[in-house]
Amino acid sequence: MERRTEGNPISPLFELSQVSCQFGSLTALTAISLQIYPGERVALVGPSGAGKSTLLSLLNGSLVPSQGQVRIMGHNLAQMPLFKRRQVQRQIGTVYQQHHLISHLAVVHNVNAGHLGRWPLWKAVWSLVWPLQVEVATRALAQVGIADKLYARTDRLSGGQQQRVALARVLVQDPVAMLADEPIASVDPERSREVMDLLKHLCETTDKTLVVSLHDVNFALSHCDRLIGLRAGTLLFDCPVAEASDRLFQDLYALPTATS
Ligand SMILES: Nc1ncnc2c1ncn2[C@@H]1O[C@H](COP(=O)(O)OP(=O)(O)OP(=O)(O)O)[C@@H](O)[C@H]1O
């Protein structure tokens, strides 16, 4: 569906047309078509194995579909040479449940890893000796509330602080969209709220699109404006949060019956 602002069409940031993903004999996604527009906060919800992480991998270009077409900022990555594909991928930041930080390095180095796609090798190596762009890293850490941890060893931080370092790394990358794959899985309710508040705040204040996979539908309802429900690799619903109903979630999470 085309969107317009003041009469001008807006291009989708992500566009999937009849996308299917196959892993061997397993079909992880089947004929998914959707668009995500700049500034949206989209929650991907659905039971385990529904295809949420697979969809996120398509959106950041780390996976290409078996069938159909994925366009990221208008580009079909499957048809682009590697270096051009990387340029598009740098526009998309992803935070994972496992933060993928290098634990024995100081925080500043992990944050600076957000520059790696743009920096030449010599600069990346030099920065490990003499950290570069410290002020950018400090600003990103301030945005996530841990500016004082710049030179702390990463593995001396709490799990929540490490998650903030991972977010700061994405901020220095300065992507147009942030993808988050179950950022609050296996954390306590208080920290879940903190992380979700932070993600929402960062996307609002830095004008970024957010696509987040969540098991907790309450956070999807309170922190996002659109819900995409996946079940067994198919799109069950795609609606504004205001239109979500208990019935939708019952259908989404219903256990399969012996005959279904
Ligand atoms: N690299 C892979 N190789 C083989 N199968 C895979 C791969 N990645 C995902 N799958 C399978 O695809 C299906 C969808 O997985 P996916 O991780 O996208 O689901 P999910 O909704 O994110 O699940 P969860 O909520 O448990 O993380 C699952 O059956 C999974 O086992």
From TrEMBL:
InterPro entries: AAA+_ATPase, ABC_transporter-like_ATP-bd, ABC_transporter-like_CS, ABC_transpr_PhnC, MetN_ABC_transporter-like, P-loop_NTPase. Residues 14-257 form the ABC transporter domain. Keywords: ATP-binding, Cell membrane, Membrane, Nucleotide-binding, Phosphonate transport, Translocase, Transport. SUPFAM superfamilies: P-loop containing nucleoside triphosphate hydrolases. It comes from the Bacteria. GO terms for molecular function: ATP binding. This is Phosphonate ABC transporter ATP-binding protein. The lineage of its organism: Bacteria, Bacillati, Cyanobacteriota, Cyanophyceae, Nodosilineales.
